[in-house]
Amino acid sequence: MLHSPPLDLAVEVRGTGFPILCLHGHPGSGAALRVFTEVLSQNYRTIAPDLRGYGKSRVQQPFVMADHLTDLEHLLAQQEVEQCLLLGWSLGGILAMELALRNPARYPAIALVATAARPRGAHPRVSALDLVHTGIATLLNQLRPGWPWAIETFGTRSLFRWLIHQPQSLPYRYLAQSGVSAYLNTSRWANQALQTSLSQGYNRLDDLAALTMPCVMIAGEHDVHITAASNQETAQRLPNCEWHCVTDTAHLLPWEQPEVVVGRIHKWFNDIHARV
């Protein structure tokens, strides 16, 4: 498949100062990163796009994963950004590493959350009852975000139990605010592009030695979508990477423990930016 011309991405820009390009996962949107941007924009200019085929960045035809990189470089040109920090969650972390491999000098530091250069999962088999409970849990959570009874009764029996380790109200409120709309606005072309890349055995571990800039990687202890072990494997291949594993969390760890995850990244960016 030929690469498509760059797409003008929908984007949320907050704050002023040195820019941070903030990249969401799958399914996702720039709005799903507000847990980060609301904090980071106190000191930085955060740029959080909807990737091609996600959110408001709509497409009507197939594309390949490399098109995301073309779009993002086009966005940085539109925003008149010559250098920026990178923050990527899940798929966004993969794209952050890919951008940095294209042009390491452009990105002084990278923060990676729940991601890997050779992503591996350990998701249990999904049953029909899981899907039923997920539908009910989603509906109830939209009607009454973070309702403890609904979480205990349906959420802990739904697919959300593999995304959220502790059945607490806070991550379910984030799901209601951003998660469901992100899922509903993820196109079939975005699904297809990601699945095609994964089916081809995506693996960039051997290339990570080129990324010598400071990196931090934060994983969820119980992540079954991109396992903590595969996160750590990537951290070990990055020449200058701090590794942290947050207990009692899964793939949505920024929504489960925002004070820990976002706070650590905010402090890390501040420390790094003071030196670069």
Full CATH superfamily name of the largest domain: Alpha/Beta hydrolase fold, catalytic domain
**Terminal Cα span:** 39 Å
The helix tally amounts to 10
Roughly how much helix do the residues carry, as a percent range? 40-55%
| Strand arrangement across the biggest beta sheet | 1-3-2-4-5-6-7
Number of strands: 7
How would you describe what is shown here?
With 276 residues, this protein is an alpha/beta fold. It folds into two domains: 201 residues, Rossmann fold (3-Layer(aba) Sandwich), CATH 3.40.50; 54 residues, no CATH class. It has a seven-stranded mixed β-sheet with strand order 1-3-2-4-5-6-7, with helices on both faces. The N and C termini lie far apart (39 Å).
Topology at a glance:
Blueprint: E1 11-14, E2 19-23, H1 34-40, E3 45-49, H2 66-78, E4 85-89, H3 91-102, E5 110-113, H4 128-143, H5 148-153, H6 169-184, H7 188-199, E6 215-220, H8 228-237, E7 241-246, H9 253-256, H10 258-273
Parallel strand pairs: 2-3, 2-4, 4-5, 5-6, 6-7
Antiparallel strand pairs: 1-3
Descriptive tags:
globular, 2 domains, about 15% strand, 7-stranded mixed sheet, Rossmann fold, 7 strands, alpha/beta, about 280 residues, single chain, 10 helices
Sum this structure up briefly.
With 276 residues, the chain is of the alpha/beta class. 41% of the residues lie in helices and 13% in strands.
